[in-house]
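Blinded run. Sample ID left blank on purpose so nobody reads anything into the name before looking at the predicted structure. Input follows.
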Amino acid sequence: MAVEPSSEFSAAEAHVLGRYFTNLDRPVFALRNLPEVVKGALFSRYSRTEKSLRRVLLDEFINEPDSGFGALATGPGDADDMVAVRRAEEFYERVLVGYGDDSVAELAGAHVAVERTSTLAAKALEDSRIGISPLEKSTRYVRFDRPGPDGGFLYYRGPELAHPDYQPAADALFQTYSTLIEPLTAAIRERFPIDPGETDRAWKSATRAKALDMLRGLLPAGTLTNLGLFGNGRAFEYLITKLAAHELPECQTLAGDLHRELALVIPAFVKRALDERYGAPSAERLKRVRESIAKLEPRMGVRGNGPSVRLLEHDPDAERKVVAAALFPHSDARLEDLHADPAQVLEALLADRANRRQRPARALEHAQYTFEIVANFAAYRDLHRHRMLTQDRQLLGTSLGFDVPPGLAELGMEERFVKTIDGATAAHKRLEQELGPALAQYVVPLAYRLRWYFRVNLREIYHLCELRTTPQGHPDYRWVAQEMFRLVTEVHPRLAGFARFVDMGAGDELERRSSERRLDEKLSALRPRSDRRVL
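Blinded prediction complete.
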């Protein structure tokens, strides 16, 4: 499609620039068809000039003989572009050194797929709170018993786990998981027959999700999963350094793998992640600190009494602080001098929220809470996704006991479930004694509980509890979110009272049924009118 020249550019310039911008004549535009390292260098220079961004790209990159950009601008728009950019890498690095700082690396990003990595390693990859957005393969929608290339079950088999008890225990967990899926699905479908007006697709999806939800606790922490990651250069650099210092050899290998692949797309931004001047010393320090702290509080094998949510800390003065923060941008007074009626302020601030997607104001971040939670590892996987808070966990083990999904007993499948987990428990004990507690985690089933903490503000409490208590949510994490909200309500009833989309009810027995019906409605609305059928 021909590009109309703007008043700023000649027809020839517009023809070249049109390939890299969504428009050439409006003040808001997006970049396209540019490798990430070019975008970072471009924005870096942009902050130090009066020129427009499009003019900077034209004058100082495309038309600069030393940049090597000519091959990129006149190339066919395919993989050859990346070859041209790699040849021009030295030029872009000079731009970044001359005009940028660490924050410039936040303007260049990359998408990375990480496949066939353990659930344990996936938690390490997802532990970055700022700058990286992860998406992981779901245990609710995907069966995990499909055989791998070697015909075996998909779980991590690194050389560090060469112990005679590991693979038999993992195989037994997967075998039970695989054996129970079909009879459990059939039993669920008998208990929850298709409703009038419900599509076969929605019914089968909801009942299959119920079966996979009930059995996910059998999967060991070594289960292989797939992740998609999007992040900026600065976040990836730190992630690689952290992985290099990790106690799991699998994560150390991932550090090198990520560094190698990201060096092909955002090389200037991950160069320091493992280098001898910055990255390697930082990784060594992280390792040294971890080992030193661990010696100060040895593991005692503390036993557990079941799932729990405890509110350890809260601020008795939180309501006053929230009210003052809400008033502050609309006043000329000092923060500590703002004392309007709390009821009126909170009513104006929160009363008209129509749904949970209407986020509460930033003022709620002035109320802080610390929770200690004991719940199964599968529920932790879901709640771990919340990144606007401070969290950390203890090592996964077997001392806190495990959860058996309600309903398995009446379907006659509890005994097989428990017996298989008991076998993994015995294997974990031997692995822990001979390989250490970190590596022994791989054989622990997701049904086992672990302890972690959340340091979280009220604004995120609204988001987390309104989202994680919806009736279609998994019962395990629904209970955690409900308990968190109940405890906040006890200490700050007026602040919590406006979180009206927290669902404290029992939830749906067939959790996904309502969601699948809504999906059918959306799919029907997307079809051309002539193709629609009554669902």
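Unblinding after everyone has recorded impressions. The mean pLDDT is 89.
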